[in-house]
Protein 1
Amino acid sequence: MSVNMKGKSFLTLMDLSAQEIRYLLDLAHDLKAKKRMGLHGQALKGKNIVLLFEKTSTRTRCSFEVSAKEEGGNVTYLDPGSSQMGKKESLEDTAKVLGRFFDGIEYRGFDQQVVIDLAKHSGVPVFNGLTDLDHPTQILADMMTMEEHLHKPLRECKVAFVGDVRNNMSYAWMFGCCKMGVDFVGYGPQELIDGADKSILTACQAEGEKTGARIQLSHNMDDLKGADVLYSDIWASMGEEELIPQRAKLLAPYRIDDAMLEATGNPNVIFMHCLPSFHDFETKLAKEWKDKGVDIREVTDEVFRGRHSVVFDEAENRMHTIKAVLVATL
Ligand code: CP
Ligand code: NVA
């Protein structure tokens, strides 16, 4: 079946078909191979993309900037302090204005409804660069990285997300896994499992039944058995910083270490992380909390730097997959 994504927004993988996700992954592998050969296209020549960031970013912003420019496009970056959006101008008006100037809009912020409204009112493709609910461009990069390292079809893989099972990365994995037939377990404490949105879990389980994906949340370590990927994320997401001490206490038993890798029973398990990560005490935050007696590391330094870790391949793949999204939709 031929896939045509021109003009389509990229708000959540739940909106896409498995064929469309497959198409984006194939395109990303192809664009990466071309870049390795020093070949850049002109697929975005004459295209202007605006990047709206209401939260900080390294990988996502750089991926949009570098990939757009490598394909001949232009980007304009707006941080929360440098636009009128939400302060002097409504979201609807902002979307209508940006749609007149730009061929595509990337947004990172809080409410998923913002990307939905931007897409509704701007008339141009909108790309979700992370919200409190979802991080779909990250999952594309993660699946690409799995394909590079696991050498088997995604539908034969099992992903274990460890930690805050009710955060945007956990949900983003559920959305991606149920679409692509990948088994998913969110492994974390009952308190956070209880806080997860049950309607999301139910919807993903229903979709998973069609594709052969088992989607579950569990506090039982036995459910890590057979995982191909152990995935970690920071314990308190952007905007939740005041929760750091309580999360550190709650999630200390869920810090990924060598014993947890072994608990998968899979000698070839890979460790993945969306980054940024607290894996040592070399960051200002990790150091400040350590001085107060709180260890906020979600993974040990040994695992992060160890032979199972593919985190920097994963980070690089943000760029290739975001390029694929831009080339496919613009
Ligand atoms: N993984 C990720 O989205 O990284 P940034 O926050 O640096 O964009
Ligand atoms: N859950 C993290 C993901 C960062 C890429 C956050 O939202 O801060």
Protein 2
Amino acid sequence: MSIVQFSIVERTRKSPFYEATIAAGVQGFTVYNHMMMPTWYESGEADYYNIVNNVTMWDVAAERQVEITGPDAHKLVQLMTPRNLSKTKIGQCKYIPVTDQNGGLLNDPVLLKLAENHYWVSLADSDILLYAQGIALGMGLDVTVVEPDVSPLAIQGPNHAPVMAALFGEEINKVRFFRFVETELNGIPLVVARSGWSKQGGFELYLRDGSRGVELWNLVAEAGAPHGIKPATPNSIERIESGLLSYGNDMTRENNPFEIGLGSYCDLDQEADFYGKEALKRIKAEGIKQQLTGLVIEGERLPGNSSCWPVSDGGAPAGKVTSATWSPRLEKNIAFAMLPMSHQELGTKVTVHTPDGEVGATVHSIPFVS
Ligand code: THG
């Protein structure tokens, strides 16, 4: 039992749903975008079963938004990502790798287009507000870059539809994947998108008035109660099984989009300019040296959700594990690992150096469960 304590003071912010999550029995937090984010309720595995078997509600307010408005808003957003945004429609979400001048990944957010020259960039954990503001200042762009009072609450799981219908009416379930509508609930202003960081289906409710967080949480909990809704969080078991990547774990500034399987989101031939265009063209021409792949790790159930273990082959270093978990559905230890191109073939055998000793592992495709 560790006796280390983290001091949480004002600069580590609390979510508008914070009090509600405490009342709901949250047991763990992480810090994400300078905000406390819940990480588990009953246990990682019990939460996982609630997500994959029924329906859950998640405080993901820490997925903070960068709001970009003004005549040059589109230009600024496009400068930040290799994804081609020229055909993005109002009411559409897009998953956008954000790259620097070297093609290094700075974040992997979801972009929402609210109007012409009005965007939200829904962040993973890194300081993109300052990056966007820096580009705007340096380039003399006519934009406003702010963090708005917007906090997502996710409803995830196969049984999400009746909960959504109870809240918003049947029509809401016609919203397509990665599309959103602007609406309200008892006068609480919301953006409602079919999206979320699981592959179990569901929506995200972007709360546009932080003073009404507990009220929104309670409305969802009440509407969900007859359907057995449970509080949960972004869950590492579900997301590793499903192949969803975590910025800061499975990718950092040291990685380019091709290495982590996001090459299909990069249009290097588009007319528009973006940071990293020349670097990514060079990287693509030269070919990548390593790639994120799946691993099935032998032996007993691994302790907790761990990562960053060295990988070797015949005594020589051969990359590292970036995320690992026990998979209840496969009854195996599964992981993502950054391995050299020489070790990408499915079925390749390697050795993983866990804190409990060396174990064998086999290269596997991502996702593990689909
Ligand atoms: N929702 C919102 N903000 C977020 C996340 C989210 N910010 C942080 C983090 N998650 C960003 N990362 C991801 C990674 C994957 C997806 C969404 C956000 C995702 N990908 C789909 C997939 O892999 O199937 C589809 C992407 C596409 O085809 O465009 O959903 O979850 N608000």
